[in-house]
Amino acid sequence: MSFLRIFLLFASLYLGPIELLEAQKPDFKAEMDKTFPDSSKLLWLRTFRGLADELHPVTIILGYDGSWCKGIYYLETGNVWFHLEGLLKGTTLTLNEVDQEENKTGSMRLSMLKNTIVGNWSNIDKSIGTEIKCREVNEDLAGELMSKPFYWIKDFTGKLNGMPINITLQKIPNRRLAGLVTINQKAPLYQIHGKFTTSNELFTQLYLKTYLDTTTVKIDGKVISDQEMQITFQKGKERPKTSILQMNESIKMKSHQYQNYFLSYDFSYPDIENPRFAKYIQSQVAEWEKNCNQMLENYPKDHPVLGPSNRAQHQANCWFEPYFISKDKISGRLVYTNTWSIFTTVKSINYDFTKQSPIVLRDLFKKEIDPDTVINQYLQSQMPVLMKDKDPAYQDWIEQVEFKLIGFCAYGLCLSTDFDPTYGSETIFLPFTELEPYLRPNNPLRNILESTQKQNDH
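The chain above was modelled as a monomer; its predicted structure follows.
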């Protein structure tokens, strides 16, 4: 794999497809003919295509002669392939992954269920794993890049025990869910972490955690239709509360991903048909691209990182965490991580589609009001709660750290810190009810305030 090719891939991440300096895709038929010279002894030959970790498109071709199961594992975006060889017992496949220099680079354990294979890939020491899901396809489709994975962000509102509730929910890889919940205008902000069941209709153990304490709330839910979601909300040993929420808005996520011998990346962001917004998002990830390119330049072609023991060693990820979505506005943050640094980088995204421009904090406040002063005063009022029963080192950190990441949700502003390697990120909810005396009558979030007020009146 040419490092120039990898460099070009990262450099072109948001500039569209380019011609890559890469050998042609392998001739799968010729490779399988070499693997099984006497095809008459084959009991079957099957081609499967799907996703690794619900992100990276892969092709798996397998042949079985009654004794051995052998084939090819093809990483489509990186145009890299490996030999597979092992045993089939019942419906269980146990396979070794071998590179073209005949070095063992990993292993697979897969279950064959009718026309699908499901299981896991792991590297040599099993410190890195990947979930694999593929379905059988016509052999003519082998190696053709499959469609991108499907993720979404949905915004729901309703009443819970008489109180207005807003949930911004995001589906992310491996059937996981993330997002935010606000309950009435003054309650704390809850962060969501959970997982869908295999049906993608039911989700369970969706835990909510506030910045105020470690108390968690469990939500079980069911997607009733395209427009409705039923939730059961339980805090501690309190009696469960059930509500049906209506969907306000839904957007798909666009995903770019790449995977080769030792490196993979993925980047997901809102898929909105707005050229100016797309350009704005691209400008925000320029630093991340530069960081990835710099890492690649630091490794010469003969660096030991390319050895079998370092298969899939490096990953870089960028994703969007939503605070709020509507037809005319979006708020959230872009989060960047990689395996060659302990630091996580975060950027706020607040955009007005009507005005075709980012929303600036200064534009929310009256001319005579200093936004920093108002926000800092509120932060100071929350410090005793944040510091209560915490260790001294955390107290020193929270007193000094800057809440420089600002977004908005249905009922207020979300004030967050950067990610700290030890303490993570803290988020404080500043309700609009606290801000109203300082806001301009025609501020960019006026329609959100009016919509919230109408919801409360009903």
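The longest strand covers residues 241-259.
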